[in-house]
Design brief:
Layout (H helix, E strand, L loop, with lengths): L1 H23 L5 E5 L5 E2 L5 E6 L9 E5 L12 E2 L6 E5 L7 E10 L5 E10 L2
Parallel strand pairs: 2-8
Antiparallel strand pairs: 1-3, 3-6, 4-7, 5-6, 7-8
């Protein structure tokens, strides 16, 4: 019985250490966007909202929205939400015309990992 307890104890310890190693390698990932990545909206949005799986460092995180010609169409006010550091928002210049828009983001998570990405969404049919 003692050998069985030792094996179970070692297995549990090993699993615990491994779970910590996996957490240490984690990076901020985009988990949701409004408008949705790859989605189509009929009503032009007034802002783009990004939600990540980790808290972000506001000073080192940014978001830009561009039209299909590459012109920046946001108000330049992209920022991490002070009340929820997993969220970034940026207001769009109005009016938002039908077309395809590209959202480009760069973030630094609270554990100092830097990640960037982009996606598109469509306004209209």
């Amino acid at each position: 019985m003692s050998t069985q307890r030792t094996i179970v104890s070692l297995a549990a310890s090993f699993a615990f250490v491994l779970s910590g190693a996996v957490s240490a390698l984690a990076h901020a990932h985009l988990v949701r966007a409004t408008p949705a990545a790859g989605g189509t909206v009929q009503t032009p949005p007034s802002e783009v909202t990004l939600r990540f799986n980790e808290k972000l460092e506001a000073k080192f995180s940014s978001v830009v929205v561009r039209d299909s010609g590459g012109k920046q169409v946001d108000k330049g006010d992209g920022a991490v939400d002070k009340g929820d550091r997993t969220v970034m928002r940026v207001q769009l210049q109005q009016p938002v015309a039908p077309g395809v828009y590209k959202v480009e983001w760069k973030v630094m998570s609270a554990d100092t990992h830097k990640v960037d990405g982009s996606f598109t969404f469509k306004v209209g049919e």
